[in-house]
Amino acid sequence: MIFDLIVAVIISPINGFNQLRKKKTTLVATGVILVANIPNLINDLTTGSVASLLTRVLVASFGTLVGTILVSFLINIISRLLGGQGTFPQTYQALGFTAVPLIFLGPFAFLQLFFPDVLLLSFMQAMISLVLLVWTAVLCVISISITHSISSIKAFLILVLPPLFLVSIGFGLIVALRILIATL
Amino acid sequence: MILNGKKIVATLFGLSLLALVFAFGYAVINQAALLDDTIGLIYVDDVITGQRRAGLFESPQPAFLTQLRSAKQDPAIRALVIRINSPGGSSGTSQELYQTVRSIRDSGIPVVVSMADIATSGGYYLASAADYIFANGSTMTGSIGVIMQLTNYQELYDKIGIQVETIKSGQFKDVGNPSRSLTGLEEQLLTEVIIDAWDQFVADVATGRNLPRDTVEQIADGRIMTGRQALEHQLIDELGGLEEAFAKAKELAGITGNYSVRTYQRRLSLLERVLSNYTALMNNLADLYQFPVQLKYQL
C-alpha cells in the first residue's frame, strides 16, 4: 500500500499527491526524509566508536527532521496566507514524499564506498544529483499545489520566495558588514 | 504496459533503497573499524603552514595537524604511517606537528614515517618524532636549519616615488620593513631569534632520533642529503618505501592478520575538487601578502 503510494509519486505525481492528501502517512514521510538523508550522513561520518558514530547519526537525523518541520511550517503559513486549504500535517507529509527521488542515489553511495577516488563516478553522481534535485523541486511545486488546492504558479512562488528573501537578507548583511569594516 | 513500468520503477526503487541502507551500515561498521585491525595513514604532502584557509572557497581538506589529532583520538588505530612529501614550512606549525607525533608515540601507538621525494627541514623535523623512518635512496632530506628571508624594495620604491612613513612604539617594531635595509641591531636581533629556533630544532631531532646533540649539530648546517646519506648519518633507520613502512607499522603494532588502512582526508565531492583548484590559486595569491618577518624550517 505504502509502496504503491511511493511508486505513484514517482510515476504519476499528481495522482500520487492526490492520494496522499487523503491519507495519514506522517510516519512514512518521516521515514522517507531520514532515508533520503543517508548519502549526506555517509559523507559526514568521521571515525570513532560505534556509540559515538550512532550518536552523531541520531543528532544529524534529528537536525534534518527539525529543519523539514520548520520548512513545512513556513510553507504552510505562506500557503494559507495565499488562500491554501491544507493543514500542517498534510504539508509535512507531502514535502516528506518529495524526497523520494533522492533515494535513487543509493547505488552511487554504495559504489562510492568501494571506489572513492574514481572521478567519473563523482561526476555521474553530481549530474544525477542535479537531475534529482530538479525532480524534487518539481515535486515540491506539485505537492504544495495539490495539498493546498492552489495554482502551480502560486506554489512555485511559495517555494522560491522565502529562500530568495533569506538569501537577499544574508547578502545584504554581508555587503553592509564589509562596508562597515572598510569604513572602520 | 503501465503495470510493467510500475514494476520496473518499484524494483529500481527497492534496489536503490537496499543499496542505500547497505552503504550506510557498511560505512558505520567500517568507520568504527569493526572489520580488521587498522593502521592510520596521513599524507603530509604540501608546504607546512599554520594558516587557516578561510572564505567561500575554503580548502575542504583538514590541516595535517587536524588529521594527526583525529588519528590520535581514533580508538581503532593500532599504528600510524605518515607519508611525507614536503619541503617543510613555518617553524611553529612544524614544531607543533613534531609534538603531536611525539604524543601519539607516547600514547603507545607506533608511528612510522615513509619519505617520498622530499622531506626536508620542517618535513624532517616532523619525521624525527617517529619511531621508525624509511626513505628512498634518492629522497631529498635533511636541511636541518632555520631561514628568514627579507626583501628590500628601497631602490624600487625610490624609482617609482613611494615613501613609506612608519610610526612605531619601539626601535624593533618595524623590523623587516621592506622599504629600508636592516640596521646592525636588527640583524643581531634576528640572528639571535634564528639561532634560538635552530637550537630547539636540533634538540628535538636529537631527542626524537635518540642521538647525541653533538652528532646532530655536525650536520645541522642546513645541508640537504639523499636518503642514503641520511642513513649514514642516522637521520633515518632504513631505505624503503610505503610498503615497507606498512610492514614495519604492522610489526611494531603486533598485528598478525589482515589490517585495514584508514585515511583522515574527507572524501571530496566533484564541486569541492573543482573549487579546491581555485582555492590553491587564491591561497598562492594570498601568500604574497604575508607578514614580512617569518621563521621557516623550509628548504
Structure description:
- By secondary structure, chain A is an all-alpha fold.
- Chain A contains nine helices and no strands.
- The termini of chain A are far apart.
- With 299 residues, chain B is α/β, with parallel strands linked by helices.
- Chain B has a single domain, classed as 2-enoyl-CoA Hydratase, Chain A, domain 1.
- In chain B, strand 4, helix 4 and strand 5 form a beta-alpha-beta unit.
- The longest helix of chain B is centred in the first third of the chain and has 30 residues.
- Classes of the chains: A mainly alpha (184), B alpha/beta (299).
- The interface between A and B is large, with 36 and 38 residues.
What CATH calls the topology of chain B is 2-enoyl-CoA Hydratase, Chain A, domain 1
Low-confidence regions of chain B: 54-61
Give the tally of structural domains of chain B. 1
Binned, the helix content of chain B reads: 40-55%
Low-pLDDT runs of 5+ residues of chain A are none
User: In angstroms, what is the radius of gyration of chain B?
Assistant: 25 Å
Q: What oligomeric state best describes the polypeptide chains here?
A: heterodimer
Distance between the termini of chain B: 71 Å
| Estimated helix fraction of chain A | over 70%
